[in-house]
Design brief:
The protein is built from six helices and two strands, in the order αααααββα. Strands 1-2 form a two-stranded antiparallel sheet. About 5% of the residues have low confidence.
């Protein structure tokens, strides 16, 4: 139980991203489900985990498309939380961030039956397992800017 209390204390830092308490509670359920779900079937695995039926499925989907959860505010809260929880590496006054880019296709965005789940990379380089075994990875959406 102490782990879940610490988990919820951390998730509470994301509250400003939700316009309403109701939305925040649904987001908290999604995050809890993502933290302990036994399978990776998307929203379906969350519905199974919590024992919801069709109504629960539709409500989870609604959360992901709702304007009540502001993506920009959530991203800003997440970035502040990561900087508070994890010790960032700095070179001079600049933070060093390792990032894996999300590819956005330039063509065929609305083409039916085109899946974006598994995209080919220009490079097939893999880091040796021994070099990343002691790293902790935390997803953090970023926008790269030239400086």
């Amino acid at each position: 139980m102490p782990l879940w209390i610490a988990w919820f204390d951390t998730v509470r830092a994301l509250r400003p991203a939700s316009k309403r308490l109701h939305t925040f509670l649904w987001m908290t359920m999604v995050l809890a489900g993502l933290s302990c779900r036994p399978e990776r079937a998307g929203v379906t695995s969350l519905v199974r985990l919590f024992g919801f039926g069709n109504k629960g499925y539709r409500r989870f989907l609604h959360l992901f498309h709702s304007r009540a959860l502001e993506l920009d505010a959530l991203t800003a809260c997440w970035a502040r939380l990561c900087l508070r929880l994890f010790q960032p590496v700095a070179v001079g006054e600049r933070l060093v961030c390792l990032a894996d880019g999300i590819k956005t296709p330039k063509e065929g965005r609305k083409t039916p039956a085109v899946k974006l789940l598994h995209q080919q990379s220009a490079s097939n380089f893999l880091w040796p397992a021994s070099s990343i075994a002691s790293c902790f990875w935390s997803p953090m959406p970023t926008t790269l800017r030239a400086s």
